[in-house]
Specification:
The protein has helices spanning 15-26, 51-60, 63-67, 116-128, 180-185, 256-267, 313-333, 338-367, 380-401, 404-408, 475-483, 496-502, 526-533, 542-557; strands at residues 5-11, 31-35, 48-49, 79-82, 89-93, 112-113, 133-137, 139-146, 151-157, 163-173, 189-204, 219-224, 227-234, 240-245, 274-288, 292-293, 296-298, 304-305, 462-467, 488-493, 506-509, 515-519. The longest helix has 30 residues, at 338-367. The chain is built from 14 helices and 22 strands. The chain is globular, with a radius of gyration of 25 Å. Strands 1, 2, 7, 8, 9, 10, 16 and 17 form an 8-stranded mixed beta sheet that branches. Strands 5-4-12-13-14-11-15-18 form an 8-stranded mixed beta sheet, with helices on both faces. Strands 20-19-21-22 form a 4-stranded mixed beta sheet, with helices on both faces. Helix 1 (15-26) packs parallel to helix 7 (313-333) and helix 7 runs antiparallel to helix 8. It is an alpha/beta fold. Bound molecules: flavin-adenine dinucleotide. Flavin-adenine dinucleotide binds next to helix 1, strand 2, strand 8 and helix 7.
Length: 558
Amino acid sequence: MQERIEPVLIVGGGPVGLALAGDLGWRGISCVLIEQSDGSIYQPRMDLVGIRTMEFCRRWGLVAAVEASPYPRGYAQDNVYLTSLVGYELGRERFPGIGQAAPPPQSPQRRERCPQNMFDPILREFAASHNDVVLRYRTRLVSFTQDSDRVTATAENLDSGAQERITARYIVGCDGARSLTRETLGIRMLGNPVLTYTTNVIFRCPHLLSLHDKGKAYRHIFISPQGTWSTIVAINGRDQWRFSIIGGSEQHEYTTAEIEAAIRRAVGRDFGFEILSVLPWVRRELVAESYRNGRGFIAGDAAHVMSPTGGFGMNTGIGDVVDLSWKLSAMIVGWGGEALLDSYSAERQPVGARNVAEASGNLRRMLAVPRHAGLLDDTPQGAAMREKVGREFTETMRREWHTLGIHLGYRYEGSPICWPDGSAAPPDDPRTYVPTARPGHRAPHAWLADGRSTLDLFGRAFTLLGFGTDAAAATPILDAARQRKVPMTFAAIAEPRIAALYERGFVLVRPDGHVAWRDDRMPPDALRLIDVVRGAAEAPTCASAKATVQVRNISATL
Ligand SMILES: Cc1cc2nc3c(=O)[nH]c(=O)nc-3n(C[C@H](O)[C@H](O)[C@H](O)COP(=O)(O)OP(=O)(O)OC[C@H]3O[C@@H](n4cnc5c(N)ncnc54)[C@H](O)[C@@H]3O)c2cc1C
């Protein structure tokens, strides 16, 4: 019997592996996902589903499921800085409940609060809904090798102990920070392996809100005279709370009595609660030197490990697999060139490094409160000190809470599969996002006359947008795509305000929603353009693109 070769073997069924399986299935590509656990979440880590991830959920038809998750949508999302829950409030950044916040004008979606124990099942159901996706829990990757045309893996069924061979064209390690896939591929991590030894504790206390006067808030950051030391997060908006002792670079194992005392110190009084789980973990600042070796790829925490300050980890990982999925799909279907797979690391590794650095910056800012011996003094001097600490901390922390630039403003500068147009990049500011249809950027959102978002036009195929024109005018590119079997649709957009946003007469958007090329006219060699964007020809450098723009401008004035 001929051996079955799986198109893609995914290792790890955390949010990133599940998103990859779901997106491949959505594209009609078969894959097998192996996950060593049974899928239960022992302690939810992520809970912020970023705005870009929500845009992907929109594409996948998952928005309603996320919005219906049990996190209460009216629960105020304030971040409060205080000496204890019954003590002094130093400052507060107010945010409404998730369901009460309107999406910003730059997106059809808003970010959501959906903890991992609620979000993973949504992704799991999505992945499992595709006939071509096989999810195998309690199955561990033991080892694998690769040669020029396949990957051969050994997996163990953790219930029976039986080992089996899985052969695949590609392997993607979504197997977390201690990734065996990464190790086997020989990919090094660069950066700082220990920022802090932190201890997370989930405790149950249904009446916590009645013990203090600070009202509902998402996150509480506790500042003592020695500085910032712990946080409490409303993890399910009901009865469960995540307490974190931030810790430092020295490892410390806490006894149950120490943990209980620390929780009471943060709350500021004695009270009854139940500890549900304790998770000591190491906060790291690492990014892989490359995301690919041959037929092996890494994504998510396997590729970047960052401080949770900012809530970027999973969101960055989902961005990785949205970038990778259509490229693998193109190789499997047959229209992708070899540079397409190289472009994955070229595009995503700089985004990983950027987000890792921003997350560490957030941590440093949170811990930068100097010692204030009189912070708790009930005196005019103590009050003045608290006012100053609170004001400065509130200002400093804003950068962590307002991160539209991180989520929407990443760009694939110098990508081997984008055709630069020589225009200047807007600043890459974590806080602000400047919509632009410059090649390499996320194609911007605008509402179409029929009520859809421009983003609803992108996904399964390349989309060629024509502003104030029709498909006949785009014949050279559409023909070239057909000739190379690259799936492409044409969308005519009449609205002048969207034309002004996109700035060129024609804009070619990739299946992941990033701009590959734009111009006011058809390219002189449309086949070359298609070969560049499918990874089969070298992209022009920016300098030559600049020359093209200059020629275009000169000819426009003739
Ligand atoms: C306290 C905290 C709060 C956070 N909050 C946020 C947030 O709000 N937003 C955000 O975006 N991120 C957040 N993060 C980060 C986020 O949790 C991670 O980035 C995310 O879980 C990574 O997902 P992943 O699928 O890449 O890896 P993981 O979630 O680690 O999943 C990897 C999976 O691979 C499996 N696996 C490992 N080895 C094997 C093997 N050999 N065979 C088979 N299976 C294997 C594991 O069992 C695991 O299920 C937070 C992190 C922490 C610690």
